[in-house]
């Protein structure tokens, strides 16, 4: 493989594009309009510059990564020649299915179509295409350039060849992969959402402050980041969509905390909006 396309230039899309570019792949990052893509380019360039200045990237790698990155609003132009397309849009099934139907018509028969979903069914997405054997979930973690794991989730029709292909891509990206049989929430999201939701319930009940809940989890259970900090980083609107999906598919224990619902209604979406469980300036 030498070319990959990323659909969606949000937090995850930018991170995946950066990781692919520094790993030697030609990368097309696609989104709705030029303004959105310009914001993405600015953020990726800033990350590349910082990585180079701090010595994490050698000069040749830094230069080639910048040359490898292409920003394209037209989906067909972005995806038609890639051997792998990774969708990284909002956790909305209808939106994902619409994109995969379009990609199925645009891409060559051998192109692998991956979704970066953290909870949703690659089987359901793949069933809407003519190539369910070539559809898989690749769940990256935020921040992508620092986090070592990719969950690879096999749909009902996903072939062994496709799983092996994305495992090799994960290795090229210097990531570790775990293979998961499809079930709502997979491994990490199922556990993480449960922990985060309980932390929100404890905050709502007045058990402890957000700062002390997070501190207890970090120092007492050796979590690298507290569950409320992590929810702010992911985005509380994204976390709510994940919880609603898991509540629908797995039942009562995943009922979203009322405080999470209230914060999203108030526009307190976490770090990206300037406030969530913490204030950001």
Automatic annotation (TrEMBL):
Domain of life: Bacteria
InterPro entries (alphabetical): 3-OHacyl-CoA_DH (IPR022694), 3-OHacyl-CoA_DH_NAD-bd (IPR006176), 3HC_DH_C (IPR006108), 6-PGluconate_DH-like_C_sf (IPR008927), 6PGD_dom2 (IPR013328), NAD(P)-bd_dom_sf (IPR036291)
Similarity annotation: Belongs to the 3-hydroxyacyl-CoA dehydrogenase family.
Species of origin: Virgibacillus tibetensis
Entry keyword Cell membrane: no
Entry annotated with the keyword Oxidoreductase: yes
Keyword annotations of the record: Oxidoreductase
Pathway(s) this gene product operates in, as recorded in its UniProt entry: Lipid metabolism; butanoate metabolism
Domain 3-hydroxyacyl-CoA dehydrogenase C-terminal: 185-280
Pfam families, per the entry: 3HCDH (PF00725), 3HCDH_N (PF02737)
3-hydroxyacyl-CoA dehydrogenase NAD binding domain: residues covered: 3-182
Protein known as: 3-hydroxyacyl-CoA dehydrogenase
